[in-house]
């Protein structure tokens, strides 16, 4: 019964539609039915499509990432052989783009495996290009293996060699690195990348290797300054770490006595000498004499004696003494000997290198909470009263702190320990009245109250401004629609006009001899409507013109000028 009533209602609605509306509804229904048929037929059809290669020759890490993605998306896949992943061929291009958007695979560069397959027809130029491409790929993989690097790209410009040195152009290289979030490349790492790239290319110097990050900022252009800044940062970090370590030692030492770590404040300042020094000391010991070298010299001479010069002029003086005249044998003998000994005095040479980072002075200042004793005040109530430490107790604490942090009086170190009533600050900070407590409680929720106030302001603005404006706009639109409809309605009060039209119709039928043929009711209504529109145009031409202007504006979307 309900279905019958529903069909009757649909039939009544359909009978009230004109021809144009019926065509539009029928066309819409046909399109919807065809669309649903298409979805049912093609989405439910299981096609045995061929599989295509998604990626091959990737490392195990990339293969694992790809398989995780395919399992997550529930995409069928198969692995026909090692390092090859296949999926349905119609989805290969789409999934490659999707994986590339996720940064997979990470190692897409080709290395020296490009030479695994030999091409007989390859020319020398082709082999050189392959070698350059393989070198770039291997360098990229090596740089990406560094901890701060997420992704890298290497381009090498290796010009053709020239026979003349003056016209030869050295090779250059460009490296783009994408650093991991939160990481940073140090100057030493930048220098290492430059040396790595330059060592892989003949005649390439580190100065001709340029490195930029993913934002296009150059890296390592001022190595000396960057290196100095890096050293200063390391020195500052080292000093700060040592100061914090000694301060923590003091707090850990005194916190049991003070009643907790919050009752001890320790500040330590250290001065370090980071200059590099070398000392050489040489000591000589004269008591330790060691022979280093010895030389013995002996000389023996046998012959006539020395010629005497002078005497009486004559033959004997000119020709010399006659042999065997003055000496019995006429011969002389001469013996000479010499011994030279080179001794070396014992010495000791001591060479000392002082490592940078030697502490030259230390100062420490410590505040510790004093003791609290239970006493009775004037009213007879028991209260805690602060009792400062005695000088002997302070001196003992200073000695303990000195021993804990490595005090050295020869360096001019200084350690000061003072007691302080920490509970005084707590009493000053604690709210004493209800108003102060309420203020402290409200202060905790001030950040949340700001958002609540903003939400209330937005709600009031909506209720007072936006909602009334929208209602007025809707009322104006309804009024204009009613005005337009009233112009095209045939009221029941127009009986006179209808009867006059009926008389006119009868006279025309009689004159044309069409009595009995008659006019349709729709045509009569149409004629009545035209007559009413003519009368309205003659009565209110300006309003009708404004109405048609608005209708044209709504139809074509052009601005209109309102007429007064």
Descriptive report:
This protein has 564 residues and is of the alpha+beta class. Among the domains are: 2-43; 51-101; 112-221, 2-Layer Sandwich (GMP Synthetase, Chain A, domain 3); 277-354, no CATH class; 456-556, no CATH class. Helix content is 48%, strand content 22%. It contains 15 helices and 13 strands. It has helices at 2-15, 19-43, 60-73, 92-101, 124-144, 187-200, 223-258, 315-319, 391-405, 422-429, 434-444, 446-488, 495-512, 521-539, 541-556, and strands at residues 51-56, 84-88, 149-157, 172-179, 209-213, 218-219, 264-273, 277-303, 332-354, 358-369, 371-376, 382-387, 414-420. It has a four-stranded mixed beta sheet. Strand 4, helix 6 and strand 5 (209-213) form a beta-alpha-beta unit. Helix 7 (223-258) crosses helix 9 and helix 14 packs across helix 15 (541-556). The longest helix is centred in the C-terminal third of the chain and has 43 residues, at 446-488. The protein is flat, with a radius of gyration of 56 Å. The chain starts with a helix and ends in an 8-residue tail after the last helix. 8% of the residues are buried. Mean pLDDT is 74; it is low at 44-48 and 558-564.
């Amino acid at each position: 019964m309900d279905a019958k009533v529903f069909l009757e209602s649909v039939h009544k609605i359909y009978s009230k539609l004109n021809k144009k509306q019926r065509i539009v509804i029928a066309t819409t229904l046909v399109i919807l039915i065809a669309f649903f048929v298409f979805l049912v037929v093609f989405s439910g059809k299981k096609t045995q499509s061929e599989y295509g290669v998604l990626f091959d020759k990737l490392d195990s890490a990339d293969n694992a990432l790809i398989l995780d993605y395919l399992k997550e998306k529930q995409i069928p896949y198969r692995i026909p052989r090692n390092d090859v992943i296949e999926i349905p061929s119609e989805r290969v291009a789409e999934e490659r783009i999707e994986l590339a958007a996720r940064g997979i695979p990470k190692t897409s560069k080709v290395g020296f495996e490009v030479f695994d397959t030999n091409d007989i027809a390859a020319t020398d130029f082709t082999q050189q290009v392959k070698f350059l491409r393989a070198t770039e790929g291997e360098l990229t993989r090596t740089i990406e293996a560094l901890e701060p690097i997420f992704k890298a790209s290497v381009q090498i410009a290796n010009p053709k060699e020239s026979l003349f040195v003056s016209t030869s152009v050295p090779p250059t290289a460009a490296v783009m690195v994408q650093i991991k979030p939160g990481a940073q490349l140090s100057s030493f790492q930048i220098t290492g990348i430059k040396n790595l790239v330059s060592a892989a290319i003949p005649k390439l110097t580190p100065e001709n290797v340029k490195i930029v990050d993913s934002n296009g900022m150059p890296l390592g252009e001022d190595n000396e300054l960057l290196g100095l800044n890096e050293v200063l940062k390391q020195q500052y970090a080292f000093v700060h770490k040592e100061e914090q370590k000694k301060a923590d030692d003091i707090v850990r030492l005194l916190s049991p006595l003070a009643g907790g770590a919050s009752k001890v404040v320790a500040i330590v300042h250290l001065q370090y000498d980071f200059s590099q020094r070398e000392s050489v000391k040489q000591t000589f010991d004269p008591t330790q004499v060691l022979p280093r070298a010895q030389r013995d010299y002996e000389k023996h001479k046998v012959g006539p004696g020395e010629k005497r010069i002078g005497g009486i002029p004559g033959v004997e003086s000119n020709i010399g003494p006659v042999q065997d005249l003055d000496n019995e044998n006429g011969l002389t003998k001469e013996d000479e000997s010499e011994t030279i000994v080179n001794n070396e005095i014992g010495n000791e040479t001591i060479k000392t290198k002082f490592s940078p980072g030697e502490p030259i002075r230390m100062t420490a200042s410590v505040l510790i909470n004093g003791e609290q004793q239970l006493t009775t005040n004037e009213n007879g109530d028991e209260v805690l009263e602060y009792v400062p430490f005695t000088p002997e107790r302070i001196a003992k604490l200073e000695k303990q702190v000195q021993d804990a942090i490595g005090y050295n009086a020869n360096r001019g170190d200084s350690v000061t320990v003072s007691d302080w009533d920490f509970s005084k600050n707590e009493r000053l900070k604690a709210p004493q009245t209800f108003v102060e407590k309420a203020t402290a409680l409200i202060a905790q929720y001030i950040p949340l109250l700001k958002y609540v106030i903003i939400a209330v302001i937005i709600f009031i603005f909506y209720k007072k401004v936006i909602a009334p404006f929208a209602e007025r706009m809707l009322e104006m639109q309804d009024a204009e629609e009613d005005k337009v409809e009233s112009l095209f309605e045939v009221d029941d009060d127009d009986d006179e006009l209808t009867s006059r039209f009926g008389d006119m119709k009868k006279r025309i039928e009689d004159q044309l001899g069409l009595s009995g043929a008659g006019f349709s009711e729709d045509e009569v209504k149409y004629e009545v409507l035209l007559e009413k529109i003519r009368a309205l145009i003659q009565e209110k031409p300006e309003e009708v013109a404004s109405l048609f202007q608005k209708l044209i504006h709504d139809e074509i979307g052009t601005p209109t000028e309102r007429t007064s």
